[in-house]
């Protein structure tokens, strides 16, 4: 895993070269879909996230960690840009942290960092705020089309993404009256994908993973 300690003090060019050097592993697949966890895949067209395309996902860390765990456990490589407080402890339990590149502080050009990562990884997650105009998005999307990554924006709005996924934690599992510890989470998920009717369901991560489609 690449973190702040390796990027500290490096110029933008040096950061890019370091990131490029860590992307020599083969991609998970050349198919057009990055398979999602089965319980989420039931709601998504063809069971996963579109490669060479953008998906917007709500700011739900538990769902993002589940995506990272599933992708790395299947042999894929993941990049996370601009999310220093995201805990990857769950990935070490179910996935493979050695297949994760983390750039907590991408500096003034997070899209430039993401553009490097989408050329060689399977899943790239960018967390920021605001709306991304077509002009600003164009260079990144050009790089995305040249690779095979699925690009996920968290907290960023972009015109016409392949899918928008809303996610809200609805239940904490394992906690009784005044005691216990969290062993799992129920997440209500809503998916709106191009060319498909909206889908929603409740996904449990942690102790038990299942989906009750609505």
Descriptive tags:
alpha/beta; Rossmann fold; two-stranded antiparallel sheet; globular
Description:
- This protein has 214 residues and is of the alpha/beta class.
- It has one domain (35-206): Rossmann fold (3-Layer(aba) Sandwich), CATH 3.40.50.300.
- It is 27% helix and 36% strand.
- It is built from seven helices and eleven strands.
- The chain has a nine-stranded mixed β-sheet with strand order 5-4-6-7-3-8-9-10-11, sandwiched between helices. A two-stranded antiparallel sheet has the order 1-2.
- A hairpin with a 2-residue loop joins strand 8 (163-176) and strand 9.
- Helix 6 runs parallel beside helix 7.
- The mean pLDDT is 85.
Number of strands: 11
Distance between the termini: 38 Å
How many helices? The count is 7
As a percent range, the share of helical residues equals 25-40%
- For this structure, the CATH topology is Rossmann fold
Rg (C-alpha, Å): 17 Å
Mean pLDDT score: 85
CATH architecture: 3-Layer(aba) Sandwich
Order of helices and strands: HHEHEEHEHEHEHEEEEE
Strand order of the largest sheet: 5-4-6-7-3-8-9-10-11
Brief overview, please?
The protein has helices at 4-7, 12-21, 38-41, 61-73, 89-94, 110-117, 134-146; strands spanning 33-35, 48-50, 53-57, 78-81, 100-103, 123-132, 150-158, 163-176, 179-193, 199-206, 211-213. It has 214 residues and is an alpha/beta fold. It has a nine-stranded mixed beta sheet, sandwiched between helices. The protein has a two-stranded antiparallel ribbon with strand order 1-2.
């Amino acid at each position: 895993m690449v973190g702040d300690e390796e990027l500290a003090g490096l110029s933008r060019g040096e950061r890019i070269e370091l990131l490029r050097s860590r992307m020599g592993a083969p991609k998970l697949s050349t198919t057009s879909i990055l398979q999602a966890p089965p319980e989420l895949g039931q709601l998504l067209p063809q069971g996963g996230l579109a490669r060479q395309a953008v998906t917007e996902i709500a700011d739900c860390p538990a769902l993002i960690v589940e995506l990272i765990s599933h992708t790395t456990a299947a042999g894929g490589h993941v990049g996370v840009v601009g999310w220093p407080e995201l805990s990857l402890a769950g990935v070490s339990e179910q996935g493979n942290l050695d297949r994760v590149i983390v750039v907590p502080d991408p500096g003034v050009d997070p899209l430039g960092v993401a553009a490097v990562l989408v050329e060689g990884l399977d899943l790239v997650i960018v967390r920021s705020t605001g709306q991304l105009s077509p002009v600003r998005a164009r260079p990144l999307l050009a790089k995305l089309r040249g690779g095979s990554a699925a690009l996920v924006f968290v907290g960023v709005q972009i015109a016409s993404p392949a899918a928008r996924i809303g996610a809200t934690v609805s239940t904490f599992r394992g906690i009784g009256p005044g005691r216990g510890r969290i062993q799992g989470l129920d997440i209500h998920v809503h998916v709106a994908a191009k060319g498909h009717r909206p889908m929603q369901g409740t996904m449990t991560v942690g102790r038990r993973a299942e989906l009750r489609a609505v």
